[in-house]
Known about the structure:
The chain is of the alpha/beta class. Helix content is 30%, strand content 32%.
Amino acid sequence: xxxxxxxxxxxxxxxxxxxxxxxxxxxxxxxxxxxxxxxxxxxxxxxxxxxxxxxxxxxxxxxxxxxxxxxxxxxxxxxxxxxxxxxxxxxxxxxxxxxxxxxxxxxxxxxxxxxxxxxxxxxxxxxxxxxxxxxxxxxxxxxxxxxxxxxxxxxxxxxxxxxxxxxxxxxxxxxxxxxxxxxxxxxxxxxxxxxxxxxxxxxxxxxxxxxxxxxxxxxxxxxxxxxxxxxxxxxxxxxxxxxxxxxxxxxxxxxx
Length: 256
């Protein structure tokens, strides 16, 4: 799962929770072809010769996992890119509008509340996934080669991007104290509501997965006046577009 392969005809699949998080990319592929999948927005087309599938999954882990499973079965993509917005934790060094790339995704809500406090799924002893002799509880790695390519591309374009651990939550953190708790517990940059599920399904199928998100807000005492979702999702999509363009066949020549 760690080798990002050159264009072989299989599409790049880009998912996001909402239409707003994909609208710039929808425009980039032009009319394309619309697919009907669980009443979701799914469009197929091409960007610089790279076959692309864009899909709105809906918000949350169940929507992301169920729709992605159907998409993988239907399109057999060579790469999954999950994008959208995220809230950055204090101390991450991220500001509104910045970009972050995931190295690991963590299920931040799944576990046990014991007298000692929150404990991860290891305490139960039943992994969410067991694959090739490895047991996955709360943490799911993303493709290093895909994220490394993203970091190299960002450097070449002069774009500041941080790479690190993301947390996926079902209950968004609306206080500074909760943000500090999760940041410290998981040594993480930011939080979202779908990423771990996307990484989980991708790993099950052995497909490279990359996640890049724009920072829409800082995780602090909730103040919507300080948020900027449009800026965050536009920046993320513009970078995803550049990333897909970098995968164009001309980049690989005749390399196997």
